[in-house]
User: Fold this.
Amino acid sequence: MGRLIGTVTLNPAVDEEYMVPELYLGGWFRASSVRQLPGGKGINVSVILKQLNYDSVAMGFLAGFNGEYIRDAMRRMRISTNFVHVKGETRTNVYIVDPVGHMETGIAAMGPYISEEALSRFTINYDRMLKRASLVAIGGSLPPGVSQDYYRTLVEKAKAVGVPVFLDAAGPPLSAALELVPTAVRIDHRFISVTLGYPVDSLDKLMERISQIHAQGVEWAITACATHGGLGNIFYTPNGIYVAETDVDQAVSMIGAGDALMAGLIVAYKEGMDTEMTVRFAMACLWEEIAHPGHGIGGMDKVKSLVSRVRLEKLD
Assistant:
């Protein structure tokens, strides 16, 4: 097995973040700041891995002017890319953050249509990457033209050659991929209630459903949860269940929080950290991400300074 970390973002975006204090529907506002960044779950993971001194190769599809912007921005960050270029235009996602009302509003576009020929080219590139990979991170939505069970195919290919898969998805793509048992999965609680049809109106019910996914063989199953005065996540690990919490009053923007958590989990996994430290490190990455606008973190030292401040409780 190689040393390469591959990240897959089949539906990237240019993320535009507008800071708009005291936002309300129907008004006309002047943004206090505007940021434009390459986005998409796998891309965000690659960016944070770089800030944690880990190299990766970012893969997926790019199109048009926005696609060129993403490719060039990542080259400036010295992140390797292997995107398939397609017709159309890479989508733009708009995020409006109200730092006064502590509210975020997001609008996500569909993305360009992916032809069978383009998907075939990506699959060839993916197979080549797996020959050199030690881990692959897959995340985000699927663009038009790509089958809803395609993540299942990517997980199956990786597992066939012994490459661990870290998956962050939702809806039918996640349902299909779970059947192949990825190594780690981040699960939106809305996926459980909407896609699987299970009510999750209490922490106990949420934990029950996540435990079922963990029992299928997923080593790490993670989902956000409400806690008493903080931002929490439940971690089903190979060595028990943990609830981890940060201080929510320090959150500036939640955009990219889950991607930071997954990047931290990957680094901890690669470095062989013990279970408790893995949970702490992943949550510290999330904490550092949400402490400022935009994507990204301030580096390894910033994350390490937060590790001991993560509140942790083992439930079993």
User: Anything to note?
Assistant: The chain has ten helices and 14 strands. The radius of gyration is 19 Å.
